[in-house]
């Protein structure tokens, strides 16, 4: 039997895939779950389910630090937000695919499998990396058999498989965010029930007094929170906790998927919202107006590339290099006030600040105000000439 490595979470789709790959594809199934911050309990569930369902071998791979330092850090530098929310799932998929490839090479597998449906984005994100970085065959049992969720549940019952969870929603979680979809959430006409949220308080239940938090950056990457130096992964955890308690980070949007479908998507991204807001506030202080305008365009392009599964695209690497160049001066500290879902920067400090209190002050005499008259005279010259012709 040929070996296949299955990207495994222990949920409905990948559980069904194990049995389909064994019985319908006649393959020896090796399961692998990559830890990008979904929590110890979820990793243990995946390992337990893999053993229970009978995979020939299972890998739990710790990639949390790598995800924070090599992927999230890039997302922060780029202010990577797609249609208004910080990318979390899309940012993690290239790393997960890379780790699955490594298992496949170690095990001498013929193919790599995933449990994605034919309607979502993740099939692109996994397969683009696998095709670019390996020669493995790709197997997608759920898509290839055009299975519905109801049919999968019937298959689980037929095979007497006991799922390790009782969730009615499809949830993808990593340290940078949670994505929740499915069931009643599919209809935009339905208000999300409060019990879908785990990281964030509602505005009503958030803290009743404003909370200050400071973030210190070095070359665009957070290095301290509230004056305490920490590894990035620990800063993210703390930011998730602080922002979530203040009702920050809930996103409910109609998202435009890659295949053209509109999809109602709900995200919890408290720490990401806090850190990116602080990062943008510091950039306002240290970057020139032209850098800021160009950065806004590049950030949109970068997020679009990541969302559309083009992590392997050389333009993404080019943009990372451009960001690294610009971020050399994005060092300093930002203090923000959090209250009932709002984030407001209140102080910014940096040794690379382009702001001059002396120059902007109304008490400044060294900058002769009269010298601006000539600039004003010619500033709108062409527009003035046009208006004269139009009289």
What do these coordinates show?
- This protein is of the alpha/beta class.
- It is 44% helix and 22% strand.
- It has helices at 12-23, 40-53, 64-78, 89-107, 122-133, 141-144, 149-158, 232-245, 270-286, 289-307, 314-326, 357-360, 372-379, 381-390; strands at residues 2-7, 27-35, 57-62, 81-82, 85-86, 111-113, 137-139, 170-174, 177-181, 211-218, 221-225, 228-229, 250-256, 262-268, 332-339, 342-349.
- Strands 3-2-1-6-7 form a five-stranded parallel beta sheet, with helices on both faces. The chain has a five-stranded antiparallel beta sheet with strand order 12-11-10-15-16. A four-stranded antiparallel beta sheet has the order 8-9-14-13.
- The longest helix has 19 residues, at 89-107.
Number of helices in the DSSP assignment:
14
Report the helical percentage.
Answer: 40-55%
Order of helices and strands: EHEHEHEEHEHEHHEEEEEHEEHHHEEHHH
Q: Tell me the overall shape.
A: elongated
Mean pLDDT: 94
Strand order of the largest sheet: 3-2-1-6-7
Oligomeric state as shown: single chain
- Uncertain spans, ≥5 residues at pLDDT below 50? none
Distance between the termini: 85 Å
Strand content: 15-25%
The count of strands amounts to 16
Question: What is the CA-atom radius of gyration, in angstroms?
Answer: 25 Å
- Helix/strand/pairing class, anyone? alpha/beta
A few lines on this structure:
Helices cover 44% and strands 22% of the residues.
């Amino acid at each position: 039997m040929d070996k296949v490595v299955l990207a495994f979470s222990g949920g409905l789709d990948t559980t069904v895939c194990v049995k389909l790959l064994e019985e319908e594809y006649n393959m020896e199934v090796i399961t692998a779950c990559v830890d990008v911050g979904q929590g110890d309990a979820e990793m243990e569930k995946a390992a337990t389910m893999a053993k229970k369902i009978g995979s020939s071998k299972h890998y739990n791979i710790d990639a949390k630090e790598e995800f924070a330092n090599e992927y999230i850090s890039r997302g922060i530098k780029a202010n990577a937000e797609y249609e208004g929310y910080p990318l979390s799932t899309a940012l993690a998929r290239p790393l997960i695919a890379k780790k699955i490839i490594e298992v496949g090479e170690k095990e001498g597998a013929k193919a790599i499998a995933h449990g994605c449906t034919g309607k979502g984005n993740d099939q692109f994100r996994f397969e683009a990396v696998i095709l670019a970085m390996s020669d493995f065959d790709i197997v997608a049992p759920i898509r290839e058999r055009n299975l519905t969720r109801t049919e999968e549940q019937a298959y689980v019952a037929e095979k007497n498989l006991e799922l390790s969870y009782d969730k009615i929603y499809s949830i993808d979680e990593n340290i940078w965010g949670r994505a929740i979809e499915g069931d009643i959430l599919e209809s935009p006409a339905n208000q999300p029930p409060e019990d879908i949220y785990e990281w964030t308080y509602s505005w009503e239940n958030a803290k009743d007094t404003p909370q200050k938090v400071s973030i210190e950056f070095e070359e665009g990457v957070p290095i301290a929170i509230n004056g305490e130096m920490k590894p990035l992964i620990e800063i993210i955890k703390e930011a998730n906790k602080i922002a979530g308690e203040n009702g920050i980070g809930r996103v409910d949007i109609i998202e435009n998927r890659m295949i053209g479908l509109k999809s109602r998507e709900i995200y919890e991204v408290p720490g990401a919202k806090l850190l990116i807001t602080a990062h943008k506030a510091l950039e306002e202080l240290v970057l020139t107006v032209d850098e800021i305008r160009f950065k806004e365009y590049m950030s949109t392009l970068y997020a679009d590339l990541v969302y559309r599964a083009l992590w392997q695209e050389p333009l993404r690497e080019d943009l990372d290099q451009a960001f690294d160049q610009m971020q050399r001066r994005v060092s300093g500290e930002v203090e923000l006030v959090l209250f009932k879902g709002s984030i407001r920067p209140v102080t910014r400090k940096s040794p690379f600040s382009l702001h001059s209190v002396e120059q902007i002050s109304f008490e400044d005499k060294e900058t002769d105000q009269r010298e601006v008259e000539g600039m004003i005279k010619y500033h709108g010259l062409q527009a003035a000439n046009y208006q004269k012709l139009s009289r």
